[in-house]
Every structure is written in structure tokens, then in C-alpha cells.
């Protein structure tokens, strides 16, 4: 498709571009059934801004790729498949793997050869499928390629957190507005990046100290989900995880951070992204700041200028452009 995507995304058509790109990343759209069976049994889509989550109910079927349906953009989208019910047997670049409830599978469509969807005795199986454009992920080369085409146990460490987060997002009782979807999409991308980095370093098995690392990542995920709360603080974070404030500070110091600075940095990153979004150009700057937990507009402006070298207004004027009407 020849579309270039930036994680910070300053182009006016950023949201539309991502959606158009991800619309081509459907698990079954690029694969033909051997007998022409209609494999859909229902499902729904959750728009997460930088990612799309599809909950798919599918009839048991054997799928194979048609060689002439391979497209260049297939290699530019990562998919994470989490079986909610049933089993998925996959052949990717000649390598076979099988995943079932409790696991997740990571691939792109470029090298996907065959998929065999098996139910657990019911009429249909259910999958949660996340699609993310590769340029959105802060990973390249080996860190990305070494993970693709592998099933990953989802019962420990970072992969367990990621699987649980995807399952929570897939819950049909979950109702999200557009802003919440974007916030959770950003959290999801961070979790995926952390999971891929962990797997590329040491494979899917548990590592020494993984319990402590899992707690640290769970805390960071909690913070990202609560950035909009102006009362978010080291004390409230520690209380939510039943640890002392001093232990919380030690967890962050081990990674060269402080809790307060990391919270402020995450809030600034989210406001900067929203200020660059042409779709939000009519939303006042102080409202965007408040959405991400900045209680005082003056404090936000000073922190923004200190971090990025220009005021929020100057940044928005330079990056966000209203999309021309036809």
C-alpha cells in the first residue's frame, strides 16, 4: 500500500491511515478455505486507535493461503492471536505450532501458510486477534523477527500480563469511548513491545527474577491505565499493589526512573500525541491536559516546554493541521 506510519503520528490523516491499513489485516481475509466454507460465526471489533482488536467466532475449518493473494503490506502488520475457546494449528514459513486457551501466537501474514481451526466440541471457536502496524512498535530487526511464528505460553511473566490484558479488552461487557480506546491502545502497544523484547532476549520460558519484573510491569500498566486520574501518585500506586512506597521507589530506581517522573513523562507523551492529532484540533489545550491528569494548565505548559523545548500551542500549530474538506 506504500503507507508510512509514525508512532508519534503527526500526519493529519493518521487515524484514518491506521484504520485503512489495519482493515487489510484480517486473519481470514487473505486466506481461502479449501472448500469455500463460510467460516464466520459472528464477532465484534474494538477500535484501540493504534491497534484493532477483533473478537472472532469461527466455525472449525482448515484454511490455506492462496499464493496469488500475497500482498506486500502483509509483512507490515503484526498479529497476536489469543484463543478464547478452541485450538489453532498454524504453519508459518514452514514451521508448525499449536496454541490453545492459555496461550498466544504472534505472526505476520506474509509467511502464513495454513491455519487449522479446531473447536472444543462446540459449534464454533472464539479468538481474540490484535493487529498492530509494525512501525508503531519500537522494535526492529531481530527483536521483531525472532518472535514471529511462535506460540507463547501465557501463564507467566510479561506474556501472561499481555494475554490477560487482551482478554480483558475482549470482554463483551467492556464499553469504551473513543478516548478510552486510544488510551488502552497505547498501553497495549507498550505491553506488546515489552513482551517481544523479553521473548527476544530469553525465549518464552520464565526468567530469574521474573516475579519482580512482572510486578514492575504490572505497576507501569496500572499507571498508564490511570493517567487521567489527577490523584495518581506514588502513594496511591503503592496502595493499589499492597506494597510500601519505599519498595515502589526501589523498583523504579532499579530501572533508572523515579515514580513521579515516569508518571509525568507518560502524561506528557499522551498529551503530545493528542495535540498532534488533527481530529482533536478543536479541543482546547487545557482540556487535553486535564484528560491526562494535569490539574493545572500552567504546570502542564511549563512541563511541556521544559521537556520538548516549545509551548503546547507552538507544538500544536507546527504539527496538527485541519484536514481540508472536499
Description of the molecule:
The chain has helices at residues 14-22, 142-145, 157-170, 178-202, 210-225, 234-240, 245-253, 259-275, 285-291, 297-308, 312-319, and strands spanning 31-33, 40-47, 52-58, 61-65, 77-85, 87-92, 95-100, 103-108, 112-118, 125-133, 150-153. By secondary structure, the protein is α+β, with helices and mostly antiparallel strands. The protein folds into two domains: 25-197 and 212-226, Jelly Rolls (Sandwich), CATH 2.60.120; 228-325, Arc Repressor Mutant, subunit A, CATH 1.10.10. A hairpin with a 4-residue loop joins strand 2 (40-47) and strand 3. Residues 1-36 and 204-209 have low confidence and may be disordered. One of its GO terms (molecular function) is DNA-binding transcription factor activity. Pfam families: HTH_18 (PF12833). Keywords: DNA-binding, Transcription, Transcription regulation.
Brief digest:
Keywords: DNA-binding, Transcription, Transcription regulation. This protein is an alpha+beta fold. The chain folds into two domains: 25-197 and 212-226, Jelly Rolls; 228-325, Orthogonal Bundle (Arc Repressor Mutant, subunit A).
Amino acid at each position: 500500500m506504500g503507507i508510512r506510519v509514525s508512532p508519534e503520528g503527526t500526519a493529519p490523516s493518521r487515524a484514518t491511515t491506521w484504520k485503512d491499513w489495519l482493515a487489510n489485516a484480517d486473519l481470514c481475509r487473505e486466506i481461502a478455505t479449501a472448500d469455500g466454507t463460510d467460516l464466520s460465526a459472528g464477532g465484534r471489533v474494538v477500535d484501540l486507535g493504534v491497534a484493532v482488536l477483533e473478537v472472532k467466532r469461527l466455525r472449525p475449518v482448515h484454511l490455506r493461503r492462496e499464493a496469488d493473494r500475497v500482498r506486500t503490506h502483509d509483512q507490515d502488520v503484526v498479529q497476536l492471536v489469543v484463543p478464547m475457546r478452541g485450538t489453532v494449528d498454524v504453519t508459518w514459513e514452514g514451521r508448525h505450532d499449536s496454541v490453545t486457551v492459555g496461550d498466544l501466537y504472534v505472526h505476520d501474514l506474509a509467511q502464513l501458510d495454513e491455519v487449522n481451526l479446531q473447536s472444543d466440541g462446540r459449534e464454533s471457536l472464539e479468538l481474540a486477534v490484535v493487529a498492530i502496524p509494525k512501525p508503531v512498535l519500537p522494535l526492529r530487526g531481530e527483536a521483531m523477527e525472532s518472535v514471529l511464528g511462535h506460540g507463547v505460553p501465557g501463564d507467566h511473566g510479561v506474556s501472561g500480563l499481555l494475554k490477560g490484558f487482551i482478554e480483558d479488552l475482549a470482554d463483551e461487557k467492556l464499553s469504551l469511548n473513543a478516548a478510552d480506546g486510544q488510551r488502552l491502545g497505547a498501553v497495549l502497544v507498550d505491553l506488546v513491545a515489552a513482551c517481544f523484547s523479553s521473548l527476544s532476549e530469553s525465549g518464552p520460558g520464565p526468567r530469574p527474577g521474573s516475579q519482580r519484573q512482572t510486578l514492575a510491569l504490572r505497576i507501569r500498566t496500572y499507571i498508564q491505565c490511570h493517567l487521567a486520574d489527577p490523584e495518581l501518585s506514588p502513594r496511591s500506586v503503592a496502595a493499589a499493589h499492597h506494597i510500601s512506597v519505599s519498595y515502589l521507589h526501589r523498583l523504579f530506581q532499579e530501572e533508572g526512573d523515579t515514580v513521579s517522573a515516569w508518571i509525568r513523562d507518560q502524561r506528557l507523551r499522551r498529551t503530545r500525541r493528542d495535540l498532534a492529532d488533527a481530529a482533536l484540533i478543536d479541543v482546547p489545550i487545557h482540556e487535553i491536559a486535564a484528560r491526562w491528569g494535569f490539574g493545572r494548565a500552567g504546570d502542564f505548559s511549563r512541563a511541556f516546554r521544559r521537556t520538548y523545548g516549545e509551548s503546547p500551542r507552538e507544538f500544536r500549530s507546527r504539527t496538527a493541521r485541519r484536514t481540508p474538506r472536499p
